[in-house]
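User: Here's a protein and a ligand (dioxothiomolybdenum(VI) ion). What would the complex look like?
Assistant: Let me lay out the input and then the predicted complex.
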Amino acid sequence: MSTTAFPDRPRVDAREKVLGTAVYAADVAVPGLLHAMQVPATIAKGRVTSVPIDAAMRVPGVLRVLTADDFPPPVAPPSAGGPPPPPPTITAEIAYRGQPVALVVAETLEAAIEGAEAIHPRYAPAADFTVLPDEKGAVREEVEPTTSGNAERAMAGVTTRHKAEYISPPQHHNPIEMLSTTAVWANGLLTVYEGTQSAGNVKGSLVRGLRLTPEQVVVKSPQVGGGFGQKGAAQRQTALVARAAMLIGRPVKLVVPRGQIFHNATFRPENRHHIEIGADASGRMIAVRYDAAQQQSRRGTFPPEYHEAVPMMYGIPHYHGTATNIRIDTQNPGYMRAPTPHPSCFAFESAVDELAAKLGIDPVAFRLRHRATRDPIHDKPLSSCLLHECLTEGARRFRWERRTPAPGSMRLADGTQVGFGVACGAYPASTHPNVVKLRVSADGTTRFTASSHEMGQGIRSTIEQVLVRHLAIDPARLEIVIGDTAVGPQHTTAGSWGTASVVPVAEQAAARFNAAMAELLAGRKPGGNLHRQLASVRRPSLEVEVSRVAPGQGAKELATFRQGGMAIGGPDYPEFTSYSYIAHFVEVHVEPRTRRIRVPRVVSIADCGRVISPRTAESQVRGGVVWGISAALREKTEVDPRYGGWLNNDLADYVVAVNADIGEIDVGFIDRPDPLLNVLGAKGLGEVAMVGCAGAVANAIYHATGKRLRELPFRVEQLL
Ligand code: MOS
């Protein structure tokens, strides 16, 4: 167990990013590169009957137009736990507006755009389509409930209860790095450069969908300019671009315009939460009934896991949660930052605040009456839960004691209403198997290869922290190769399991290396760092390979991973359950005339186990809080009920929080290692950072104004 905190060190990639020299997928220079553009469907549902291409082919520079006929027939989706599904291709069947109908490939980007504009497919539209949940034509499908104890019986015996509905809208991820694919087909080898959270998944999908062998596909994703779940699988355009490169025999690149990303990438579906909480005579929550429902595509598989976080926070013994998909005609929803815990904790933590108000108990004190030590759903101990510590430290830093309890009781001199709100969050601490190689050379270089992806979160910096703590190497010449199927299997880096999956195995690799070095030296004691020691015994380099699986996993999961499958461990491990936690404290100001809501101050304290890289951890939490504020006050994608698709499909109309929306954000960590999860005691951080933040904003608005807002995002008109 790691007993000492890690020091603050600069990010390893800070300099190259500031200088603009970091190379992202779309920056890769490839000679003879062609450019592509997609043609989006203009119907909401139906079939393409023909794609006239003559006008496009007359555009100077256009080489080829790919349509449904250019793709092998689809292969059956694999069984659960098997290889990744085949990638989307072009099909004649149109399931949603904006789905690609054709791909135009040209010598220049301008010609590709002009060619795509010249294509007007003919359609046989379906008689009817459904784009909003709960309309005629939607199909409701309930999944397995999440249960502990007997919520119905317990609810009958409570003394105080609160019941309400909370709503979170459709939202789209908008990483600054656009979706893009560059594909090179040469000598029977397909090399794909794509900003992805899962080079392994992209490879496996292409192998299946394009009928290739694993030896024929390499996927490289050294830097990702934000993933957030949008880039967790082969993207809508991946196989189109790869197929084009194979058919034409020249490299092809597509950068998907943002308007098309809104229609073709996955998104956070609209979701609704009917919550009832009951408290006993001592003022403790003992029963929860919670029905969640989400918008879903006709065949989508994004699971409505709205009960994964809430039961892990307060040790409420009686819980009954249901979850329903409402299937309509849209593109597939998918994982988007803190996918289900963000909306479920907004809803639940608002409900907790409402119940505390009903009981007349301070909302921090009310939460502190509950402490979770067990996972009630799987009946296992929690490996660690320091939510109390987050709450007490947060309240201290925020100066919560300055809050006067009555809503509307705090004002600035100009009449601005002031509110203090608190809310908490939890997020699963999953981990994934990993295979790493560590090579130190006499020439002064060190190379570490692993499964992981750098998405801006700073995972290379966490790896460096561990390696330089244990190895006498030159950190300036340490190369960390990740996101590359050429160096080893690559798991999906998502669900906040990246750090906890790679740093323990990096630590093991360092220990193994030092042991191998001692054996090599056989009692000799040459001076200097490891590079000099290798040089003095005339050994060019020394390499070790180490693999690691999650607690409870073994050879089977490692083999699954080596063959390109997913093998996620946790958060319910055989002996325990692991979650990360956070408490957010938010101050809002509501301007008296315009009712404009501002968030001048946030304090967020996280329990992510041991903090590995203080600097990148802090920026993860700051980013999560910014997104929480953005979700609370700004983000909503508007459905077009007339034609299907989305109306505000750009960053001018899909409004996100900007600098002017963000005030002071004070971030803190409990920084106590989890005793069970791994040798470093690291849990996960990226997503829990956002969870609960929107609830804290809601609770602060209630405290400022006396008005309870239950539908995200909160806009001026809701306070008029
Ligand atoms: Mo996670 S949904 O990959 O941010």
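Summary: The pocket of dioxothiomolybdenum(VI) ion is lined by residues 197, 227-229, 232, 335-337, 339, 494-495, 687 (CB under 6 Å).
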